[in-house]
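Form 7-S
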Amino acid sequence: MDEVFIPDFFLWPRSEVSWLPGCTHLSLSESVRPDLALTEEELIAASELRRQRDAAKTHRYRKRKREENEKGFLRNNLAQHQSWSERNPGRVDDIAAGVRKKAKDLERFRCNLCNYNAATQFALDAHDLSQAHLDAAKRGFKALKPLSAAALNRRASRADAVANQTHFCAPCNKACSSSTDLKRRCNLCDHNAATQ
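Output:
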């Protein structure tokens, strides 16, 4: 079988591969090693083809398992996800934060009336039912609330504190806007490293 080049199975004929593999479809099931004499285009093509085939294989497997027993499939998926989440507690939050940020950046769930980007469809649905959105829908535009006098004074005093360096962190060479901000800064790792 390896004497014949089959374009939908092998990436290239065996005779054209410089490192003379024992099996020409090795690169379809695992990534191509970077120290081989392959061009950048061949590496990209191999990686993309492998990704497409893996996705198609996973899709077929999940479809077959779902058709066999939908409840069992969902229960098994949930159990696998929970066990992975327990083993990787920090990664779950990192991935979720990345997904939310990407959804907001791409404006996937957007309320144009309120100029609001939600992270999920559920959050957008909740926003659509909020009083602020309903009021904006009645008016046809979102009314911006003016800042209170206290908020304006706080903003001005913080700007003055930074300009006058009232709360200044010498090791970090940074002016803070308040004493609380300065205390928080003093507890940071980079501040502790700078003082040593």
